[in-house]
Amino acid sequence: MGERLVGIVTINDDTNYGNRLQNFALHEVVRSLDREPETIVNRPPSWSRSLLVPRAMHDLGHDLPGVIARARSRLPHGFRRPAAPALPFLEVRRAAIAGFARNRIRSSPHAYSAMPTDYWADRYEHAVAGSDQVWNPTYRRAQPIDFLEFIDGPRRIAYAPSFGVRRIPGFLRSRYREWIEGITHLSVREHGGADIVADLTGRAAPVVLDPTALLPRTEWDALIEDRSRPVDGTYAVRYFLGRPTAAQDEWMTHDAARRRLEVVDLHALDQERFADVDPLGFVAAIARADAVYTDSFHAATFSLLYRRPLVLGRRYASDVRQEELLAQHGLLAGGTGVDGLRVVADVDWSEVDARRERLRASSMAFLTAALDGSVGAPG
Length: 379
Description:
This protein is α/β, with parallel strands linked by helices. It is built from 15 helices and 12 strands. A hairpin with a 5-residue loop joins β11 (about 335) and β12 (about 340-345).
């Protein structure tokens, strides 16, 4: 092994700004620690056959709408509900994100599924799982690669993985327990994740910063220095990955008009105007905005990093990531009078920055020690 290669396992596709930005940030931090990072190209496989029946039984009791939706998708074409029309500029956005990843993130020469396990074990000094929702059973279908089973335990590092759910479904608990127990260097991104780990294994997992906040603001400043503003004059960034209610739409439109802000909607992929904005353009747009309306964890993270006025929408009730982000920064979100829409106001930014710096120091200490092999084995 000539280079001190570190393999990174995360969700790696080209549809989401936040995922690619956290992946990039972790690369930069690992490089600062004298290693060479490489993201392992991977796609989650289909659900294991042995899990199909237990999953169906679980979903019937906990996710009946999802069961119905999947059943409808398997009906003959004439019996299906009409699909939503394709977003005309989705591929433009994907190309912008893919170009950023190609230029800024080193990827493995082969897909994970194309090579035997020994290849990956021999290739890397360490492997890191994280960050983002790499341990979300809904997104990733509970696959061993996300828990680094291809490499021996002392070389496994979990840096800030998020479960993205409040609890692990019963039919997956034994698998998650076994996989997590096999990771020597274990951390999570949210206290809710630490609670899951403690419940499953009895281990105490430290909570660390998302990589986008682990990379100092000065480095983000340098990266976006040459990026122009998305529009002339004052503006608000809107970035909703879910679908706001009519009442939420009306409130945000009125609020932007009251502040005399042009709205820059970075997720309106039925329009060409901002479709080609790449991940660094996304950061720059937030950094210079006069307000940010979002239901995105990473859009909120950059809003706090750049001290932007922030209005938060809740995408789904089971998502605890926003609450964790606010708690880490010592913030509360007040009501707007509209259900599911809150505003972060009256902020002591010096205290927010100080809290982040303290957590950054402990997070860097964890990752440095893990790469140096000086963190204790599972207890």
